[in-house]
From TrEMBL, chain B:
Keywords annotated in UniProt: ATP-binding, Nucleotide-binding, Transport
Residue stretches making up the ABC transporter domain: 11-228
Gene Ontology molecular function, alphabetical: ATP binding; ATP hydrolysis activity; transmembrane transporter activity
Gene Ontology CC: membrane
Protein name: ABC transporter ATP-binding protein
InterPro entries from the UniProt entry: AAA+_ATPase (IPR003593), ABC_transporter-like_ATP-bd (IPR003439), ABC_transporter-like_CS (IPR017871), ABC_Transporter_VariousFunc (IPR051782), ABC_transpr_CbiO/EcfA_su (IPR015856), P-loop_NTPase (IPR027417)
Lineage, broadest ranks: Bacteria, Bacillati, Actinomycetota, Actinomycetes, Geodermatophilales
Length: 514, 232
């Protein structure tokens, strides 16, 4: 004889109470942690808002720019918002967004309790996390956008952001419950790349032809917040109603990905984070390559890297966005006149290019046997793996320089100066791909994200550090009003020396003599 | 060996193709399991036994063919299916802050079992976990965690039990007791499907055996299959 089965909510409550019964923290300790986190967030928001206000004031006082800005700041902010939303959609689609931990998959999902009741808490948790993060990130923007921010204005921005974030989570969850998981990410990526490419093409054409400036976007209407909140509510309601349709295998797979990604994020291991977010079965290529022109081991490595990169549309798209970021900042009215802002945008864009270019090397790092298949020494195979990154980052940096320099006096010098950073960025991509795993057996330090090995922060920037150092002459050119032949020569020499040194370090770390 | 009177097939697969990303891992499978019968699944490592079991319980989509439970297409999203089918596959995981006993109570209460405390206490004793039932999973040995996962099958009602290598990580005594327990369960009318590499376990539990292979799937008598096992 049976009694009433537990409902999903009762199952969650049972688990929560059993867990709470042996929690080794007191209520006071938990409140203390909450207070400390709130203070940390408030300080972070204050610092970021101050920095943004400072940038805005600098834009107003900036002198003659080294580039030709044509875009109003509002348009650039709108493009950045599209890119950020696309990034969020990609993450939500890849992570579920609704998922089950392995334990929940093993002990909750086989119960007869409705999936809706079991998973409602998970959907609420992911919605709160995304909304909370979006609100915290938008708060400094809301505070810094105007000279005298009003309470109402800030509230509208925050409510609109919260509503938009909740609507995105709801839409992704609805998509998941209808069995279309994994289809939003390519769409969002394509939209992001399309917007970036069109924006760059348009602003470059305007700068070159001297056509009319792009009109500034109207300020954010208050109705946006209402519309966003209005869209979020039905989407979340429909998503909750569809939770019963989610299968255990799908939830378990999404949970494994989410755990992998979360562990990588709190360990500051961006290489593993990237793997977690792209860990899907790759599609079989439409056309098999015959590598007919390959006649030696060195060429085989290069041809293999080229094939790996060309079969990864994500990384090709990333390279296009890498060109767009510095060009858009350089063409933005006010921002383009700030040398540090343009240089910072170059660093962001070229870092993206270096990460994309390192895709084949990261695959080789994950499968060391690949490099042992061919009769090449460690230095030989490492140098061979630098060829494709060098070609890609040279293309990206040269295109950046050309598009930034067009409509100015020295487009070819800009092109050459930016392209001359390529050896450093190519070495950066290999340094990042082959950086050592975190040493969890060694000493550890306590951080707000938990315990991390000593040197985790240094590992986080390995790769990018070489690129940043290698791009210092570009900063000098921006500060002094433009590139010169001397700066170009210095840039090339500095970049080649730095790149060679970094490559030698990678070879030594991989166990070969440099 | 069996005492069931109901001969209506509980689980039926016809031309069932199983695999990943459109690639079958073994030859198509036809099987019928009636209440009170136990089907052993044998094959070499990588032959597709686990993939087949996961497809039978709806955790993987079939690449082709059909699989039905109680006359209806298998859909693990249906509460009725989960009510009737208990399985322990290769997905052993535990809530880190729930004790072994609490895991079993959650399962028993989740299925509406009357007097769950007594049922759980009996299974805890049966599986030799009486001393360790109130320990957290991290404090249990690998074999004790395996016993805990298997005990969950018996603290709830089920018409079909699906187990992937239940003998794995168990000592010889526990293997023998589990085999006897499953045989009793089968004789009480429960249908059982299990993958296995242990000849004695196979002889004790199975009425019928399915040999899974890339080229073909064959039905064997348990005695024959037990002799074949060492050659796989």
């Amino acid at each position: 004889m049976l009694e009433a089965e537990l409902s999903g909510a009762q199952v969650r409550r049972f688990t929560r109470r059993a867990t709470a019964a042996r929690a080794d923290t007191t209520l006071a300790e938990r409140l203390g942690d909450l207070w400390a986190n709130l203070v940390t967030i408030a300080i972070g928001v204050g610092v970021l808002a101050g920095a943004l206000s400072s940038v805005r004031e600098s834009m107003a006082l900036a002198g003659a720019p080294a580039t030709v800005p044509v875009l109003p700041a509002g348009v650039t902010v709108a493009i950045a918002a599209v890119l950020a939303i696309a990034g969020l959609v990609v993450c939500l689609d890849r992570l579920g967004p609704v998922s089950s931990t392995p334990a929940a998959a093993a002990w909750w999902l086989p119960l007869p309790a409705g999936r809706g009741g079991l998973l409602r808490g998970e959907l609420a948790r992911i919605t709160s996390a995304v909304v909370g993060t979006a609100v915290v990130l938008s708060l400094p923007l809301a505070l810094a956008l105007t000279d005298a921010p009003s309470v109402l204005g800030v509230a509208v921005v925050l409510a609109g952001t919260a509503g938009s974030a909740a609507a995105l989570v709801g839409a992704a969850a609805v998509n998941q419950t209808r069995g279309r998981s994994g289809r939003l990410a390519p769409l969002a990526g394509a939209v992001a790349v399309g917007v970036a490419v069109v924006a760059v093409a348009a602003c470059t054409a305007l700068a070159v032809t001297g056509g009319a400036d792009v009109p500034a976007l109207p300020s954010v209407p208050a109705g946006w917040a209402l519309a966003a909140l209005g869209a979020a509510v039905p989407l979340v309601v429909v998503a909750v109603a569809g939770l019963d349709r989610l299968g255990a295998a799908q939830l378990r797979a999404a949970g494994a990905t989410a755990q992998y990604a979360a562990a990588s994020a709190v360990s500051l291991d961006t290489r593993e984070l990237g793997r977690a977010l792209t860990a899907r079965r790759p599609r079989a290529p439409r056309r098999a390559r015959r590598f007919g022109r390959v006649s030696g081991a060195w060429q085989a490595v290069v041809a293999g890297d080229r094939a790996a990169l060309s079969r990864s549309p994500w990384h090709v798209g990333q390279a296009l966005v890498a060109v767009a970021v510095p060009v858009l900042v350089a063409r933005t009215d006010g921002l383009g006149a700030l040398p540090l802002a343009v240089w910072g945008a170059c660093l962001v864009g070229w870092s993206l290019a270096a990460v994309a270019a390192g895709h084949p090397a990261r695959q080789a790092q994950a499968l060391p046997a690949l490099d042992r298949l061919l009769p090449l020494s460690t230095p030989g195979v490492t140098v061979a793996r630098a060829v494709v990154p060098l070609v890609l980052v040279t293309t990206v940096t040269a295109l950046t320089g050309l598009l930034v320099g067009l409509a100015g006096d020295t487009p070819l010098l800009w092109t050459g100066l930016c392209a001359a950073t390529a050896p450093a960025w190519a070495a950066a991509s290999l340094r990042g791909a082959f950086r050592p795993e975190m040493d969890w057996a060694g000493p550890v330090v306590s951080t707000p994200m938990g315990v991390l090995p000593v040197g985790a922060g240094a590992g986080f920037v390995q790769g990018v550090d070489v690129g940043v150092l290698g791009s210092l002459p570009v900063a000098a050119a921006l500060v002094t009003g433009g590139p010169t032949p001397v700066l170009l020569a210095v840039q090339l020499l500095w970049s080649v020396l730095l790149g060679a040194g970094a490559l030698a370090l990678v070879v030594r770390r991989r166990g070969g003599r440099s | 060996m069996t005492n069931t009177t109901d001969r209506t097939p509980l689980l039926r697969a016809e031309g069932l193709e199983v695999g990943y990303a459109g690639e079958p891992v073994c030859a198509p499978v036809d099987l019928v399991v009636e209440p009170g019968r136990a089907l052993g699944v044998v094959g070499a490592n990588g032959a597709g036994k686990s993939t087949l079991l996961q497809t039978l319980v709806g955790l993987l989509e079939p690449l082709g063919g059909t699989v039905e439970f109680d006359g209806r297409e298998v859909d693990e999203r249906q509460a009725d299916f989960r009510r009737d089918v208990a399985c322990v596959l290769d997905d052993e995981a535990f809530f880190p802050s729930l004790t072994g006993r609490e895991h079993l109570l959650l399962t028993a209460r989740g299925h509406g079992v009357t007097d769950p405390e007594s049922v759980v206490a009996a299974e805890v004793a049966e599986f030799g976990l009486a001393e360790r039932a109130d320990a957290l999973p991290s404090q249990l040995s690998s074999g004790q965690r395996r016993r805990l996962a298997l005990a969950a099958v018996f603290v709830r009602p089920a018409r079909l039990v699906v187990l992937d290598e239940p003998e794995r990580r168990l000592d010889a005594g526990m293997r023998a007791r589990l085999a006897q327990r499953l045989a009793r369960h089968r004789d009480d009318g429960v249908a059982i499907v299990f993958a296995c590499h242990d000849a004695d376990f196979l002889r004790a539990v199975a009425d019928d055996v399915l040999l899974v292979d890339e080229e073909e799937t064959r039905r064997l008598a348990p005695e024959v299959a037990a002799d074949v096992l060492p050659t796989l």
